[in-house]
Design a protein that fits this description.
Blueprint (H helix, E strand, L loop, with lengths): L2 H25 L5 H16 L2 E7 L5 H9 L16 E5 L4 E6 L5 E4 L4 H5 L11 E8 L2 H4 L2 E7 L12 E7 H4 L2 H10 L5 E7 L8 H13 L6 E7 L1 H10 L2 H6 L2 H31 L5 H19 L26 H23 L1 H9 L5 H10 L2 H24 L17 H21 L6 H4 L5 H9 L7 H27 L8 H4 L1 H10 L24
Parallel strand pairs: 1-6, 1-7, 2-5, 7-8, 8-9
Antiparallel strand pairs: 2-6, 3-4, 3-5
Bound molecules: zinc ion (ZN) (2 copies).
Length: 554
Amino acid sequence: MRQEVNLRTYQQMKLDLAEVLLSACRVTGDRDEDLIALEREGLSRLAGDHFTVVVVSRDGSGGTACANALIGRGWLPSDSPQLGSVPLRVRHGTRERVRVEYLEDGHFGDARLSDLAALVTEDGNPANVKRLRAVEVRLPGEGLRRGLCLVVERAGPRERVVSGGDALVVVTRREEALSDNGLNYFEEVSEGFAGLFVAMNGDATGHGDGTAWRDEVETRLRAMERPPVRMAFPVALRRGLACLEAGDARGFRESGIPQLEGALASFLTQRGAEALLIATRECLQSVLARRPEAERNEYLRRLEAIEEAHRNPDPQEPLSALESTAEDMPPRNAGACAICVEVKEQGFRFLSRYQFELASNRDAREEHARAGGFCPRHTWQYERIASQRGVSSAYPVMLATAARRLRELARQGDGSPASSGPLLSARCPACAVQQETEERAIEAILMRALPSGEGLRGALPWVCLPHMERILLHPKAVSVRRLLLELVAVRLDRVAEAMRCCLLKDEGARRDLVSEEEREAAVRALGLVAGHEGTVCSREEPAVPARAPLEPSL
Ligand SMILES: [Zn+2]
Ligand SMILES: [Zn+2]
């Protein structure tokens, strides 16, 4: 079980707490300034809540490799052995971004990820000649998205860790961890932290001897007086990360990284949940202080239910077979559905050509009129492209054909269209293009996914639910249906979570923390449910209205 599971449930709990607090704020009608400040403070605390894990190494080596392992991808430079004296902060961002803070007050600059080695390593920035205070990297890692922040710095013997945080990870070589110097170092460096996690990196020595090392180091750690939580893990950081990136689950497990991550995440989330629950309860009580007791108790009961659900998750709840990964990040500026985008593009191309034909070619106009023109939706799409002159040249034939039909109707029977079919029945050419485009796009997606569904996760574009339904109904989709359903479920959860986060940060006046993904989530949610405007075709709503049964005419 990786860190995401812990962090996900913690995040859910936080968002549930925020919802209770928000609804309590809304019922308190007589809000004075003090009350508003109280609410704001409570929400702002929830919105800004995160975990800071400081990763240090004595000689500056291994810190970034460990951070990469915790983020789950080799984003940070770990080939340059020495991390210089500039702390490297890593936070979540929907896109990669590097921000440099200079020692001179108020000076910031942007840099590229590939420049990092030149900024934070001793080789690239010896003795901090570039006069930097810190370098902040924003990355789209999953743990980061759920509130993990990392600080990587060097802390030699008798050096203090500059950055404070919730937990300290010390990366050390295995043999160093057992020396007396090593133990003194742990004691010195972990001052002020509640948890110490020693990552004994054995990349160079190979595996097999991990457990023996760990027992010995943990015996020694027990002899220390602080911090309250002290644990040691044999890890192979680089090898583990390489396995993770290559999709070698077994190799990754054997690297010891998941064990370190799991222990770290459960330490952080347990501690964090307690603090969050206490703070939210206090805030709720103050916010509702002037409300009737029964109402107050009702809110406190909701809070207890969240606490209970967090401690003992419902075993009936179907467990998701898949966890969200960075591969499930929504595409940038592409809307919610790749098929809708394709339909829109092809539809526009077709209509542009077709309206030109209608404006300039008599045969085309007559054919268009015989076929009953466009469906109502495509008529208005045509109107947006065509000029008034174009419409005036194309549509007289259309109206004349319709007029002929009305006169025929007037001469025959009772004149009710119900007895003879609708006034207009369009075999819309734009709808036909749309259906072909959809069919082609669905085939292409399934071609990439088949036969086993391997690689489907990365290859499956974001599609709206109406189009997903069509993919699932496709005969070729049978073997990958289950996987498709799980994948889409993960994505829907992800967008829902992003919307809730956005709302919380908005209400808690922490708009500065809203990520690009969170900002776009609301529009994306609608697009996922309904497809893009005017691109999900109306196959369900019949183009020709069903004919009413004949009424006997009196
Ligand atoms: Zn769609
Ligand atoms: Zn149409």
